[in-house]
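Exercise: predict the fold of this chain.
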Amino acid sequence: MVQVFKNNFNYDHDFKVVSLAYLNRYPNPYAKHVLSIDTIENFIDNDGNLHITKLMVKTGRLPSFIKPFLGSNLNSWIIEKTIINPHTSKLVTYSANIDHRRFIKVEEYITYRKLSDGVTNVNNKVLFSSNFIGFKQRIEEWSRNKFTSNIEKSKDGLSYVMNELKKLKT
């Protein structure tokens, strides 16, 4: 059974600040697990939407029950595809690991949308699926729980970048 995480919250910042912060969110003091990030493609389509594809390397700790198979630390390659529609003030992004998929596949879907002046809504959904025979449910549950416990750091990191952007503006 695939584990699912859903979350919906608001930032008290306008969409332009939130989307700019999202594109520049690394490095920040809350994301020490991000080892590298590269933009591999960007273009503006005929409708004026900005498309960006990034490749990241992240590291993380593994649960003790999996260490005999994979070791204690795991670097993972992540692909992220983002589309920003400046006309509707909407940013949609999809990210997923492109390695270690037998162990765990994590797919994250996030939508940032202007709710009102000065408020941006964030809606995210994350799917956790494993094909690791004998440990499937345990790995999926552990991954979901770990993600849930780290979501506040992710929010804090983006808030940090938004505040830094505001300092540059003044």
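Check your answer against the key: The beta strands are 3-11, 34-44, 50-61, 73-85, 90-97, 105-116, 119-129.
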